[in-house]
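Need tokens for this chain, all 472 residues.
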Amino acid sequence: MTLPIRPARGPLSNFIALGTGELIARAAGFLATALLARRLGVESFGVLGFATATIAYFGLALTGGFGAISAREVARRPADAKQIAADATAVRLILAVCGTVGVTIVSLYFVESPVRRTVLMLTSLSLLPLALDTGWAYRGLGRNHIVGFGLVAAQSLYLAGALLLVHDTTDLERVPLLQLVGDVVAAAILLLILFRGGVPRPSIARGLNLLRQSGFITVGRLLRAVIVTFDVILLGIIASDRDVGLYTAAYRVCFLAITIAVSTHTVFLPAVTRATLSGATAIGPVVARSLYLTTSVIIPIVAGGIVLAAPLLAFLFGPEYAAGAGAFQILLASIGLLALHGASHNVFVALDRNGLEAVIFGLAAILNVVLNLLLIPRFGLAGAASATLAAEGLILIAAAIALHRLGVRPAVRGLVRPTGAAAIMAAVIYSVAGQGHVILLVAAGAGIYVGLLAMSGGFPKEFSEPVSPLEV
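Here are the structure tokens for all 472 residues:
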């Protein structure tokens, strides 16, 4: 039995379907994080951040490239979506079990702090629902609203658990278990909908073939993880739990922006994949649309966040977290660069040039590690954030050069309008910063930006039009 193939949605409709669900879900998750930061305190929140950063490596090692490659295969062969999902999930689950056991062994023998050890082992259980997550299959089919629904259910449960079951630092060990329950629920929802009517017999051989194809992407994402999490781990080793807590709080806001940025890129993967059938010149216009959507959504978040960094952190997490404002501003700037170069990922996947992307990430990871080792001992949080900014800048430059050499040359003139509107908005908010509550300033900034963007033309008409296989 195959899934029915439904008419394609336009990229903007797909982003709204996925982005709205992800935004609601991440907002619920973020509220839970803000609540936990206040109730646990900076030090315990730092322990949680250290565990999350460490498990990120294992999660990406186990599932990093599966999603992109499998989504590409589903986009190419939508009638086989259920079989592809069964094959990939079987192998992912085997690897996840091995990863959980491995983390447990490492924790028992190499982590001295009992609290860190316990939290790390409990956090490793999240690898299991991660392996069962089939959101990539829905993205390949262009049915992103289902993914959004699962995410909302998961994060709502997480928020409810944080509200009811976590009261102070003595409840720290409950947090990874609450996250586990939410992730299991989300994975179960997606599995039940995808495999209604029966589960095809999985083929380990076909799943391993997907694993082999995903090798370069997995390596690339592991290297990306170095850029995103090495600073947190190094701070945890040579600095204090308080430093990790401050940095983690700042990064949580950035992760929300990253989630939105990834959504703006993800919805274009089917269109980019189909555009490759007509050659590199057909890919450029699709990437240009992706860049415009990403810039329109992310740049105002970055600009506004930089201007309101200190009061925003104090409002979200508590007054003691305002000390991380300097690092937060630098990290937000790096998110702007990430949002731009992230559009290139779809091109590398669609053209099977994942090795090239891995090389770019490798160079950036080396730069990041070297700068972290040099800057963190001297400049602390600001040094860690600066290393991330430098790495993202290198990726942007290298990705732009790579796309140009591949013949993919998207027009970037469309980025002027959203960037200009965001700059004006930031200037206005900066001029009145400190004269009102931060929420009022955020709302005013959003209104100014939307108004300026609307007056300049808003979203082009073609964003609401589906990109069908026949178009390319």
